[in-house]
Design a protein that fits this description.
Blueprint lengths: L2 H7 L8 H22 L1 H8 L2 H41 L1
Helix pairs in contact: 2-4, 3-4
Length: about 90
């Protein structure tokens, strides 16, 4: 069987749970907010002073932490799903 056909028959990722969907959407919002914060840092510093840079730094730190947690949970869910799919194929 050609590799591309074999890969089409193999599940690539677990179905997304409500929790993972919420985490993914939070991740996306944090990434957009981080980008906007970094792009507008000079304006924010003019408006709010020095604390604005700390707020943007905190936003970047929260984004990094959330990304790490999301990737860990998503990989764990994918691996469990693929292990279950593989073991059910071996039984059949």
């Amino acid at each position: 069987m050609p590799l591309w056909l074999d890969m089409m028959k193999t599940p690539m990722a677990a179905p997304e749970t409500d929790e993972l969907r919420g985490m993914r959407r939070t991740f996306q919002v944090l990434c957009v907010a981080s980008a906007l914060g970094v792009l507008s840092i000079s304006t924010l510093v003019q408006l709010f002073g020095r604390p604005a840079s700390f707020m943007v730094a905190a936003l970047l730190a929260v984004t990094a932490l959330h990304t790490t947690l999301y990737v860990f949970r998503k990989n764990r869910a994918d691996n469990a799903y693929l292990d279950a799919a593989t073991s059910s194929e071996e039984v059949a």
